[in-house]
Q: What sequence folds into this?
């Protein structure tokens, strides 16, 4: 088996020693090549070249951003027969995709699980989400593995990226503080989103829309945040939208999500599971994020679920 190990040396929990242990372990079972990323998009370029070169396995070692790039590289020309299998060894701060797959967050344990999967040939097909966004200077197609969103969450991602550019390290505390600041900004703005899903009339005056490809939607530290518990890698997309952003409404949903295993309900809530697509439009440009990575601002975006698009070693 030919394998490519893509390492993001800047990821939160990635170290040279950990990389060497992983590489040494993999090299005992496969014919291994290694790429260390040094620019944005490098992991995607390396994974796309691995498809052209006929690799059997591409292993992403880094955070969710690294995994997202590798997936976008593997699927750059769309879903095709014979594309490489994906392996994941977490090295970031959240590692949502790995957690949703049931993989260990500890890199050493995850390496052992990957070696076992290679030895025994165990894998699973998973769905992947696709984003097509236009407007406000953005014309972008992108795959996502666990979530995407427009509105509040994307504004939080944008603000956190600005903080990280100034040298701040991403952490649950930084995200929580940024979310609070962004909330008061959002609340002062009128609702502008129109949400469309199959076989239903458009929903207008929506303030935010979270799209899930699996459950949980994200983690707050070790706490799983479950917006759409029935959404999984074996079905369609989950939608969680809010019509109102009043403080009692938001506090009620936040308290519910933190205290329980999800399944929120309410009059201001627009929630669906297992939908084929979600289309969101806005007269004003709104931020868009995929897998915690800011794409930019857009006025129209369509999220589509693609079943069985990826094979993952588990």
A:
């Amino acid at each position: 088996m030919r394998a490519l190990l893509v390492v993001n040396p800047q990821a939160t929990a990635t170290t040279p020693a950990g990389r060497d242990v992983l590489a040494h372990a993999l090299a005992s079972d496969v014919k291994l090549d290694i790429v260390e990323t040094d620019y944005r998009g490098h992991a995607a370029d390396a994974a796309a070249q691995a498809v052209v070169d006929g690799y059997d396995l591409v292993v992403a070692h880094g955070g969710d951003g690294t995994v997202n790039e590798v997936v976008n590289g593997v699927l750059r020309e769309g879903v095709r027969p014979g594309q490489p299998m994906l392996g994941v060894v977490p090295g970031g701060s959240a590692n949502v995709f790995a957690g949703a797959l049931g993989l260990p967050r500890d890199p050493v344990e995850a390496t052992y699980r990957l070696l076992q999967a290679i030895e025994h040939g165990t894998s699973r097909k998973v769905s992947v989400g696709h984003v097509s966004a236009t407007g406000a200077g953005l014309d972008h197609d992108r795959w996502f593995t666990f979530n995407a969103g427009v509105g509040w969450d994307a504004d939080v991602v944008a603000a956190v990226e600005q903080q990280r550019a100034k040298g701040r390290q991403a952490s649950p505390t930084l995200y929580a503080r940024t979310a609070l600041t962004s909330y008061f900004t959002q609340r002062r703005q009128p609702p502008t989103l129109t949400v469309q899903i199959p076989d239903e009339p458009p929903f207008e005056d929506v303030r935010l829309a979270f799209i899930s490809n699996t459950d949980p939607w994200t983690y707050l530290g070790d706490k799983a945040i479950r917006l759409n518990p029935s959404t999984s890698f074996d079905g369609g997309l989950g939608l969680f939208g809010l019509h109102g952003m009043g403080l009692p409404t938001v506090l009620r949903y936040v308290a519910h999500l933190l205290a329980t295993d999800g399944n929120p309900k309410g009059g201001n809530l627009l929630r669906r599971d297992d939908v084929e697509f979600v289309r969101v439009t806005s007269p004003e440009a709104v931020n868009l994020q995929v897998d915690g990575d800011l794409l930019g601002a857009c006025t129209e975006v369509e999220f589509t679920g693609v079943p069985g698009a990826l094979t993952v070693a588990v």
